[in-house]
Each structure stands twice: as structure tokens, then as C-alpha cells.
């Protein structure tokens, strides 16, 4: 393995939720070193945080534009190679675009952009740039998710005819039922959070999981949202009927008011020869139904798994790895892509996943607003 | 307890699937004695079967009409009091109607009738008759389903805003993918099986469970079916968006091609204060999510349960009772009603459940055929 | 099937815990008819109960001896064929012995007798009588327990080297910690309950399950009891090391103070080629570990099960049957034996199981009292 | 937070199993920086590996003694502060002792030493040194294990009376049944692996978990091993009866031939007021039985947890953290101790745990060899 890749961080400060996940994930396989960052919009906070986590402060910039400007002045072999964008949603597009346009690789949080329009524009920049773009749909890094994908590719289910995905959380429940709170939280303010809360934040993970595991595209959708209160303008719950081709149908269910649910992402896929069930909160158990046979429970690290799944496990079977390890697998995939190494095509979610995700989110809103009618995805 | 109730059986012969469930259930609480029957259309088969299970053969009639005729000749204190209708679907309506019209109580399998029209007609007969009519939506007899209903009534969830029910089976999977088989099996022949396969056979159970547990009515639905093959005219899979009132939404999912799923009926209900999850294949575990508290797992027979739930358990906690015991609880409710004893209003599914079930089934077909549009239930 | 077998009941009155289980179990497969009984020592109570459950009162006898006397006067084709002994422990031996000596078949609750001495004496009577004797170790009737037995016989585990059984209950916990209660409850009074509480009541079920499933005999044991309080003379908890032959070892754990455990009987069996895990409270799930393969989950009713297992299931997969159905399978086995029909040798626990059970119970007490030393079983 | 702690690594090379766990764990909370190491006995391999993981090679020493010698020459503010000992068992004692004697803090793998004698000697060095010594009983870092400990301390179980721990693995199964393999693998060679295989390698984890969670000391033990073959001299399976004081009893079960079990560490603790069940392979679910209440399922990150448990979680509920995160919590505790910060006394396993562990292992061997008799722990 060559020297560590020089990583820049945008967002993910000490006050953030997701920063720790990226930082740890980037270190897990000894591939990255943080050399520069804008952790916070407040420069002092950024520097304070850099000290706390013992990152040298000389390349902690006062803002994103300065980071680009200054880094470009450095010799290429010192310069940040890849930036990880962990800022709030509305900053993903401008940051990612400028990074690609200036020759940086990008690792970017979801949702990729605020609109489908932006997504397509970013895709153009990406194509022109020739750089690596990885989207952190975290759950695709789990060894058992990868095992599903590989087994489906290898025909374990035969022709798929039904997909059922769910992402249920409950954290908005106490907020939505409090008039005060539901009108003040930024998540439920469309001017700040974008056109969708539930579908944009978590439904899109479920959508991505569906396409990632089945290898099929969602062709059209019909969506019904629930807002719970007249004075709330953002979906906090929704069900989406999906069609994935001739006689391949399914449903994506998402909720932020499924009281006391935590992070209930799950998927069921059924085909002519078999079926799969997987649940994010017990990520190391994959249930495989084979026509006429007892249910089989796959677990990570066993030799019966595919190579791609096995490479995502660091310890022998029975040592539970979790979400940090899953994200680390995505960072590993990105590292290899940056180094130009060959690898499995599911090693990390790509620009295409991001574009499709934005297409999906806008389609759900359109479908709901138009009275729950079918809307085609591109 | 007075003498056992004199029970007549229609259908449920030795060749049937469901007969054993009814026979055992009727005996479990020592309330019924089988005194007459038409187990099969073939009289000899009926008599043979009566001998096998040691039921006196003198009142094994050659057909249903004869049963009515002959029984009416008997003095009232010898006559069959209640008939259990376990014949194929198309016979439920004519049999149940004639029974009610002639002063018999009725226990009837689902779906109650072939059409919504018939259902309303049967309701009229029922109202006129003043007799007991119990519909065997078997799953409503489970102690933990009854516990859900009672806790919801008592406010454990606060205002409900989301319901999600599923009934996934896989047994049609090997049939549907075989051209020969799918065109010959009566289940997929609309002239024999009625207008719906998946929704009529199992979706309706999920629908009933939703209304039974929440105490809310489904107001309107939007449905999408999957037929899998062009040459198949019956739904084998479908998803139904439901609305149960102002900002109360949900989904009912049903499938007969969820490969190797067995009898996967399950429900999730979420409200302002809490949520419930229950699965039919692990019927003795009820998961209660209370806002801000650890998940609680309710089990039958414990003193913390409601009286209604407790009365459905015969042994101390930890002795798993199952589907026979669940059906027995419905038979127990019917027995008490026949005897005119006061009891919980959820003791057995009623004519109203049957009427609503047929309304639901027809609405799903209408919605699908009309291009997946909203259809109101009455 | 010939006419129903004429069944007599001893004990199991309306005030009893276990009577309902036997009554329902005897009816489930249409094999038995209750024709006579002494439900309670109080004759009036017996008659009242007979009326309640609608059993004719003419053969409800005032006591056991009268039952024998009067029944013997009846012509053989009317006489009780088999008696089910459901009285308190100390009555099992005298009743079962007199029944066998007078030519009745016997179905008997566990523990079979109060002492090993009595067990051997009963065995003699049994041998002489040539009658059927079935011991109701209820759990051996579960389809998945029978599946384990058959697969082990067929070599699924190869040579077994380790067995681990557990039976944890918690119901004595609130009693034992209350000085008043623990000195007054008859269960903890050795003059009434016999030499052992925990091992005699539930440990013996675990012991039986070990021998039933593995087909191996326990050769020697070493036991340590816990009494919790100095003033309590009965074991309420204990662990037993077991040896089942050359390099085949294991452990049986039993407790009545495993706080809030319900009926936690479970077994793990490991051999050269594979392992099994089964838990009584989820009786329809059998976990099969095969060297080098994903865990397999067996469930009742599937064609991949053995014939013996399949015959214990009445409905298709996914319809949970429970403890009543398990006991019914034992009653079915006894019925066939009474009729002299050929069947699987595990169809019901036998006299041998009873004798070995008493040997085990006495050995655990001896081992503990002698300072936790090894004691051989015969 | 001050600058990162300067960490040295002994063992844990690219060919090792456990090295990755320590490396990742040390980075997770940004507390440590690897500045020196002897990853392998072969110096070139050590240097190669350092390059691979991008650790500067100038302080990769040719052997342990050189590391000590050279580091001591460095100014204190550059010198390694703490060494992590991840070498094979026989090297733990000499390395840890010399490190302490020379003023280094130590993080050490289990079993702490080869003999109880060595353990006591190391304890002396430790006391004299005044340095931090942390023993990596990995499982004590799980948030739910810590929650158990805190709730027990706070009285959630009342007086404990029963403990039951299990550690079942299956990986030796294919080895032991192959004559060739079982005589060649170093794990089963007492001259290389020490006096015990199963108890020394995994039983000691279960023992530690028992003492860590209950806060009670094991006072005496009685052990029975299984060697499976005459020509094998090392225990591959064993059961240990334990006594933890007046009327507090229990059992520790360990196996390396529990076919296809992975890393099956589990514990059950019962007391007057309640009980706990926890399983390592589903580490984020803690089952709490409270007398008279429904079972409660605790999960990490919720506000109902203790402060100590909460501090071991990095993301909101529902994001599964695993074994790397558990080990990271132990490294975090060690870091704070090294910096002299106050913290929970369960922040990491200590020298006392190591001494007791060795005492336990030797006692089990003594008990077994003496014919399964009680042996006191000191
Ligand atoms: N993949 C996943 O599973 C997952 C989970 C949670 C969040 N996310 C995504 O991660 C992103 C961040 O979410 P979060 O919950 O951590 O948000 P957060 O609000 O907790 O943190 C955002 C961070 O960005 C910093 N920031 C804001 N503006 C900035 C600017 N102009 N320049 C630099 N830094 C700036 C803030 O100071 C803060 O540290 C979101 O897009 C969210 O959708 C993804
Ligand atoms: N509640 C539930 O969970 C559940 C489960 C399965 C079936 N069912 C319902 O039970 C009914 C029966 O289903 P099944 O699977 O047992 O069907 P089946 O075809 O296996 O059995 C039908 C029985 O009815 C008898 N029969 C047919 N025509 C008759 C006639 N004219 N007179 C008398 N007997 C006649 C047949 O001989 C047979 O014994 C159906 O309506 C089905 O929807 C309900
Ligand atoms: N197989 C199992 O899983 C299981 C479970 C529970 C109990 N049991 C066994 O069943 C037996 C009964 O247990 P229980 O809990 O029902 O006891 P119980 O005390 O609840 O009931 C005993 C019944 O026997 C009657 N009786 C007492 N003396 C009698 C006499 N002389 N003649 C006739 N009837 C008499 C009583 O009136 C009462 O109806 C016990 O031996 C017990 O070990 C077995
Ligand atoms: N805490 C846990 O759960 C856990 C799990 C596994 C192993 N362990 C313990 O970790 C230790 C290591 O186990 P492993 O499975 O990684 O062993 P391993 O044999 O896979 O690795 C040992 C490493 O030590 C190196 N080494 C050997 N001699 C050395 C020397 N003289 N100087 C420097 N390096 C040397 C080897 O080159 C190798 O890299 C053992 O003591 C084991 O008991 C603990």
C-alpha cells in the first residue's frame, strides 16, 4: 500500500452528528490522513476542534473557497487529494461541484444535492473531471448487504418480482405533536431543508438500497405522504409504490413518526427461486429463503460468502462489526478508486446513485402533490 | 355452564384444510358438541368421515338443504343450534343466508361472501334473524392481539397516525411460474375463486386486523396489484395505501409469491404516545414501544395483561398456545353470545367485519382496474 | 379409525393447573372419549365439574378405589380402557400400579413416582401387565423436538460430544424471599413434595429431553443445589454435570428462581458434524448448525422434515401449534399403542423414561448431599 | 484534549488476528498516535508492515529489548508513553513486566500471564510502578455491558443469587476430529499454549464478565473438562460450577467444539428483584426482567441509560456499533487514566482482573485434575 491519501474535511465539526463516523471510517483501513479542513463556518471553532482531535492547524482554512484557493497553490504531492463533504444538504452541490471542477476527488454525503437539476449539473462536472465521486449511502458498506447483491447477481433469487423496503424512525414524533417545536425546527422548514423531509432524508436510503441490491432500476413511482398537521408543510411519513419493470413491483415505506423506532431500515426481496430479508439494526444476519429449503442465516466472515462480502470483514465470524465498519468499507472502495485499483463495481455508491436519488425524491413530491399519480423516473 | 351447544358442520371434511381447526377449536373449552353435518358433497364420504372421528352418523345429511329440512323437524331442544360454515367461498353466502333465515346461529369462514352485494344482503338477513353471526378471522383470537386492542382503547398509543400491516405467503410461487399449473389451479380461475386471489384470501385478514386492533375504520384505499404473468388474471400480490381519517394513513401489503414466506401476517401501529409491533408466527410476543422508554415485550398470561387478553389463555406464562387456541377463543365468544352472556365486544368478528371485508376487497379491485386511484369505502 | 378409546381421568379437576391440557389433548385427534373420572377427592366437586364440562355423571366415582371396583364390574367393551393420572405426585405410584395390576392402560404425569424404589416396582407391574404405559413429558410431543431426534438418529450431528440443557423458571422467586411464604408453601415442604423441588419438577424434564433427543443414556452426574436460605430445605436451583459415555459430556441447569423466566426449557447438542439449538418458548423454530454451512432454521410442516415430525403437525407451515398440540401428539401415540398399531418408537415417553427420571432425581440429591461428587446412574 | 498519547505496539503485525482491532480501537477517539513498534519478531516484516499502514519506520525496532533501550534514550516528551502488548501469550508477562519496571504504561492482551505466579509478580511490579495497566477484556467495553454493571450497582436486581455465563465457539471442532491436525496445532500443545486451551482462551473472558457485571468475586469453583480424545492433552470444553458467596451460585460454560458456534459469549444474572440476559453477538440488546413487569429491552444511546453507558456510544440509537467500538471504549478509559482524569471505575479491566483470571484458570485445571473437586480462589 502506498502512502496514505491526503484527505480534506468539509463540515463534520465537533458539534456535528456525522463527523465522527467519517473520521473513524477514514482511519479504519489505514488509507487516509486528514491534512486540511473547514470543520465549521466559524474559523475559531474549526481550529479548536482540530486541536482537540490533534490535526495540525496550519491547513484549517477559514472557509471553503479559501481551502480551494490555498490548496491549489500547494505542490500536487502535498495537496489534498480528496475532500469529504459533510456539511448541511444545501452545501453539498456547490462544494462538490467546485471540488470536481478544480480536480479534487470527492466523497459526499447524501442527499447529493437539493434538486434533481443540480444533480444533473453535478454529473456533468463529474464526467468532465474524470475524478472519483463517492456518495456515502452508508448501508451499502455492510458485508451482508454486499452478500445480497452478489448472490442476486449470481442468480440466487432467479427473476425478482417483488421488493419491499422500509425505513422507519420515530425521532420527529415528539416534535411534530408540539405546535411550538414543529414550526421552529429547521428540518421541517422547506426553505432550509428542501422539498422533502422524510423521503429526502431516509426514504432515499431505502430507494438506494433497493437499486443497489437488486441491480434493477425503479421505473415509476406513486407516492402518498403524511404531514400529520395542517400547519406542517413537510412530509414526515410516506409510502411509495414502485415499478421496476415488467411485472416487478414493490413498495418503499418511510416514516419519521414511527414512534420509538430507531433506525429501522429493512429490505425484503422475492424472486422465482428465493428471497432475502435483511434489517439494518441486526446488520450481521442475512436471511435467505430458498424455495423448498429451510431458511438459511448468512453471517459475515464465513467462507461461504462471496469475496466482495468477505473483504468487508476484519475479524473472524462472531465479532460484530457495525456502522463504522460499514462506512469504512465505502472509504476503502473510494481509496482504491483514487489509486486506480480494480475492484467490485459495488465498492461505493456513485454519481449515478446520487442522480437517481434526487430524481426519486422529486418524483415522490410530484406524485403526492398531483394527487398520488404515477410519475416516471428518467 | 349449561349443556354443550349443539353444533352442525358444513364442509370441513377429511379432505379439507381447515376442518380440523374448527373441530378442535369447538372442543377446547367444552362448549360444543357436533350433532349433525354435511362434511362433503359426497354423502358416503361424509358418513365415512363421521365414523372416523366418531360422530354419530344418523344426522349426517346428504346435502345442506336436507340438513335444514330435517333439523327443522326436530324438537328445538334437540335441533342444531349453530352451524359452522367451512365450505368453499361461493357457498358461504347461500348457506349462511338460509341458516339465518331459518333461525340458526352461524359461525362462518371468511371471505364472508363472494361480493359486496351479497354481504349487504346477508347483513339484512342477519338483522332480521336476531341470531348470532360470528366470522372466523382466526387471528383476532390471539391473546396478544386482544391485548393490543384493549391497550389502544385505553389510550396506550394516544392518537394513532400510522398503520402498517403485512400478510406475506409464498405458496403460489412455484405454481405461478409454471404455465401449466397457473392455468389449471382453481385458485387462479376467477370464475371459481371470485374477483381476487391475494387480497380476497389474505389481504382481507390484514384489513380486518387493522380495524380490529385500532378501532378505526378504513375510509379510502388505493391499490396496485401484481399478476406476474399476462396470462394470469388473478392478483397474487398487491399493496394498498389506506386512509383512516384526518392524517391517519397507512399501508396494507399482501403477497402469495413472497417466496417461502409461510403465514407472515404482521402489524405495526404508531401513535402519538407509543407503538405496537406484532407478528403472527410468533404470536405470544407483543412489542410495545412507549415514547422515551425501553421497548417492552408483553407475553400472554401475565397479570399485567387486560382481563380480555387473560381470559384467552389457559395455562401459565411460557406454555405456548397457538392458532388452535386462538380459534378456540372465537368459538368461546360465539358460545357466550349464543347463550346471551355479556362479554367484551371484541370476543369474535361480526357481520360488520364481514361486510367491511367485502367492501374492501371490491374496492381494491376497482382501484387497481381504474389505474390505481383512490376508492372510498362505505 | 375404530370407535374412540374410553378414557378415565384421575385428578385434573376444575381447580387444577394441568387438567385442561390433558382434556384438550385427548380430544384433538378424535381418539378418546372421557367416560369416567375422579376429578377431585371431594365427590361433589367432581360431579359439579363433570356437569360443567358436560361429561355424564353416572361414572364419576367417589374415589379411586371405587372407580376400579365399579369399572371392573362393567363388561369389557364398556369399561374404561385407559386412565390418565393427573393427581399430585404422591398419588402417581399407587394409582398407576393398581391400574396396571387390574389390566388398565395408563397415561401418567411426571414425576412418575416419589422414589426410585417405587419406579422400579411400578416397572415390574408394568412388565407383568402387558399394558401400555405413557408418561407425559409434554415437550417430547413438539414436531421440532421429534425432528431433532430423527435427524440425530439419521446422523446429522455425527458423534455427539456435548449436550447442554436448561430449564429456568422464576415463579418461586417472590415466594422464597418471603420468610412467611417459603415456610408455608407445600412445594417447599419435603414431607409433601418429595426429596426435590427444582430437579424433581423441572430438571427431570430437561434430563428426559436430553435422553430423548440424543438417544444416549446419562451415565453419571455431579450436582450442586442452591437453597437460597438456611431455613429452606428444598432445592430451588441446581446445576448438574453429566457424562453420557466416553468423552460425551454436558450440563443440565435448572432453576425456579430465575427471576421472571417463564418456562425456559432449552437444549443445545453438538457433535462432530453439526449442532442443534431449540427453545420451548419458540417451539416451532429448530436451529441446525452444519459444519461449514449457514445456520438453517427448520420449521414444522415442511416436506423437508421427517415423517415422524410431519405427522405431529395438523396445519400447513406458519400456523403456530403449541403445547396443547404437543401433548396431543403424545396422546395420539398412546392411542395407537393401545390399538396395537405400529409407529415410531418416540411416539410417547415410556416406563423406561420414568424409571430413569427417578434414578436421576435421586442421584442429584445424593450427589449434592455427599458434597458434590459423581454418582452413577443404573 | 491535549496532544495524542504516544503509543507503542508489540506484536499485532500484518499476519496477526488481533492487531487490526487494537489499531482501529486506538484511533477511534483520537487519543493515540502510533510512534513505535515491534510488530513482528522478523525486523524486515515489521518494517514492511509499518510502511503498509503508513507508520514512520524510524522507531520500528528490531526487538522488544531494543525498543526499551532506545526509547529510554529519547527525551520524555517524545518517548512512547504506553505500550500495547498483543504478542502470543507467553510474551505478555516478560514484556509487561519490563515495561512497567521501566516506567511505561501498559495495555495488555489476555490471558495476562502464563501462570498465576507470574500474575502476582506482575502485580507487584505494577504496584511499584504507579503506572496505568489496562487488560483488554474486550467485551467489557460494550455500552450494554456497562449498563448492566451500572444498573446492578444501583440495585436493579436486588441481591443476586444466580449467575450463568457461556462462551461457546466451534472452531476447534474440525481440528480436534482430525488426528493429524490435533497433534500438530500449537493451540493444543501445552508446552506452547500453557495449561489450558478452552478455559484459558475464552472461559476467562466469561469469568471476567461475571465479576465485572455483578461486582461480586467468585470464591470457589469445581470444574469438569472434556478433551474429546485420549491423545489430546488440552481442554477444548468445560463446565465450571461457581460460588460467589453465601447462597450465590452459578455456572460458567465454555467450549471450542460447539460446532459452528462463532463467538457465543452470553450471560444471565438473576436476583431478588430482577434479571439480565445479554449476548455478545447481539451486543446492542440488553434484556431486563423486572419482577412482575413485561420484559424490557435496553438499547445503547437512549437517555434512559446510565452516563457511563452513554459515554460509550458515538451515534444516536439504531446505528449499530460493534466490537471495534467496544475495544475503543477500553482504549478511551486507558487514555483518561494515563492523563490522570477521573472516570468510572469500570472504564477498563485492571491488574486485579488479570490476577483473578489467572487464579481462575489454574483453579479450573486443579479442580479437574483432582477429580472435579472444589478449589478456592484467593
Ligand atoms: N449517511 C448517513 O447515514 C447520514 C446520517 C446522518 C447525516 N447524514 C448527512 O450528513 C450531512 C450532515 O449531517 P449532520 O447530521 O452531521 O449535520 P449537523 O448539522 O449535525 O453538522 C453539520 C456540520 O457542518 C458544519 N458546517 C455548516 N456549515 C458549514 C460551512 N459552510 N462550512 C463548513 N462546515 C460547515 C457545521 O458546523 C457542523 O459541524 C447531511 O447532509 C446529512 O444528510 C448522512
Ligand atoms: N380463517 C382462516 O384463517 C382460514 C384458513 C384457511 C381457509 N379458510 C377458509 O375456509 C374455507 C374452506 O377452506 P379449505 O382450505 O378448508 O378448503 P378445502 O377445499 O380444503 O375444503 C373444503 C371442504 O368443503 C367440502 N365441501 C365442498 N362443497 C361442499 C358442499 N356443497 N357441502 C358440504 N361440504 C362441501 C369439501 O368436501 C371439503 O371437505 C374457505 O372459505 C377458506 O377461505 C380460512
Ligand atoms: N407435564 C407437565 O409439563 C406438567 C405441568 C404441570 C404439572 N404437571 C404434573 O401434573 C400433576 C398435577 O399437577 P397440577 O399442577 O395440575 O396440580 P394441582 O394441584 O393444580 O391439581 C391436582 C388435581 O388433582 C386432584 N386430586 C387431588 N387428590 C386427588 C385424589 N385423591 N383423587 C382424585 N383427584 C385428586 C385435585 O383436586 C386437583 O384437581 C403433578 O404431578 C405435576 O407434576 C406436569
Ligand atoms: N481480547 C480478545 O478478545 C482477544 C481475541 C483474540 C486474541 N487475543 C489475544 O491476543 C494475543 C494475540 O493473539 P493473535 O490471535 O493476534 O495472535 P497471532 O498469532 O495471530 O499474532 C501474534 C502477533 O505477534 C507477533 N509476534 C510474535 N512474537 C513476537 C515478538 N517476540 N515480538 C513482537 N511481535 C511478536 C507475530 O508476528 C504476530 O504478528 C493473544 O494473547 C490472544 O490471547 C485476545
UniProtKB/TrEMBL annotation, chains A, B, C, D:
GFO/IDH/MocA-like oxidoreductase domain span: 145-276
Domain Gfo/Idh/MocA-like oxidoreductase N-terminal: 6-136
InterPro entries: Gfo/Idh/MocA-like_OxRdtase_N, Gfo/Idh/MocA_oxidoreduct, GFO_IDH_MocA-like_dom, NAD(P)-bd_dom_sf
UniProt-listed Gene3D superfamilies: Dihydrodipicolinate Reductase, domain 2 (3.30.360.10), NAD(P)-binding Rossmann-like Domain (3.40.50.720)
SUPFAM superfamilies in alphabetical order: Glyceraldehyde-3-phosphate dehydrogenase-like, C-terminal domain, NAD(P)-binding Rossmann-fold domains
Protein name listed in UniProt: Gfo/Idh/MocA family oxidoreductase
Organism: Croceivirga thetidis
Amino acid at each position: 500500500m502506498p502512502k496514505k491519501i491526503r484527505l480534506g474535511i468539509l463540515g463534520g465539526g465537533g458539534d456535528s452528528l456525522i463527523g465522527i463516523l467519517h473520521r473513524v471510517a477514514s482511519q479504519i483501513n489505514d488509507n487516509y490522513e486528514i491534512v486540511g479542513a473547514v470543520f465549521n463556518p466559524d474559523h475559531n471553532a474549526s481550529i479548536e476542534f482540530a486541536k482537540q482531535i490533534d490535526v495540525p492547524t496550519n491547513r484549517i482554512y477559514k472557509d471553503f473557497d479559501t481551502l480551494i484557493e490555498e490548496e491549489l497553490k500547494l505542490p500536487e504531492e502535498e495537496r489534498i487529494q480528496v475532500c469529504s463533504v459533510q456539511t448541511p444538504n444545501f452545501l453539498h452541490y456547490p462544494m462538490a461541484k467546485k471540488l470536481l471542477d478544480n480536480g479534487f476527488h470527492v466523497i459526499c454525503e447524501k442527499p447529493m444535492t437539493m434538486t434533481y437539476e443540480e444533480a444533473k449539473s453535478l454529473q456533468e462536472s463529474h464526467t468532465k473531471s474524470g475524478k472519483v465521486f463517492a456518495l456515502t449511502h452508508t448501508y451499502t458498506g455492510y458485508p451482508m448487504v454486499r452478500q445480497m447483491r452478489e448472490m442476486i447477481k449470481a442468480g440466487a433469487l432467479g427473476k425478482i418480482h417483488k421488493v419491499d423496503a422500509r425505513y422507519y424512525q420515530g425521532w420527529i414524533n415528539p416534535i411534530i405533536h408540539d405546535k411550538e417545536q414543529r414550526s421552529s425546527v429547521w428540518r421541517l422548514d422547506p426553505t432550509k431543508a428542501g422539498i422533502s423531509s422524510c423521503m429526502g432524508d431516509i426514504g432515499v436510503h431505502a430507494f438506494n438500497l433497493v437499486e443497489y441490491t437488486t441491480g434493477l432500476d425503479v421505473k415509476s413511482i406513486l407516492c402518498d405522504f403524511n404531514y400529520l398537521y395542517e400547519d406542517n408543510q413537510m412530509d414526515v411519513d410516506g409510502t411509495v409504490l414502485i415499478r421496476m419493470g415488467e411485472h416487478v413491483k414493490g413498495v418503499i415505506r418511510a416514516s419519521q413518526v414511527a414512534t420509538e423506532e430507531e433506525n429501522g431500515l429493512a429490505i425484503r426481496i422475492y424472486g422465482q427461486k428465493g428471497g432475502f430479508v435483511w434489517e439494518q439494526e441486526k446488520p450481521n444476519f442475512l436471511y435467505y429463503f430458498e424455495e423448498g429449503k429451510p431458511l438459511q442465516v448468512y453471517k459475515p466472515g464465513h467462507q461461504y460468502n462471496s469475496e466482495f462480502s468477505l473483504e468487508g470483514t476484519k475479524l473472524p465470524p462472531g465479532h460484530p462489526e457495525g456502522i463504522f465498519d460499514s462506512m469504512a468499507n465505502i472509504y476503502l472502495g473510494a481509496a482504491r478508486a483514487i489509486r486506480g485499483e480494480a475492484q467490485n463495481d459495488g465498492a461505493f455508491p456513485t454519481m449515478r446513485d446520487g442522480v437517481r436519488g434526487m430524481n426519486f425524491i422529486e418524483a415522490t413530491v410530484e406524485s403526492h402533490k398531483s394527487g398520488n399519480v404515477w410519475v416516471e423516473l428518467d
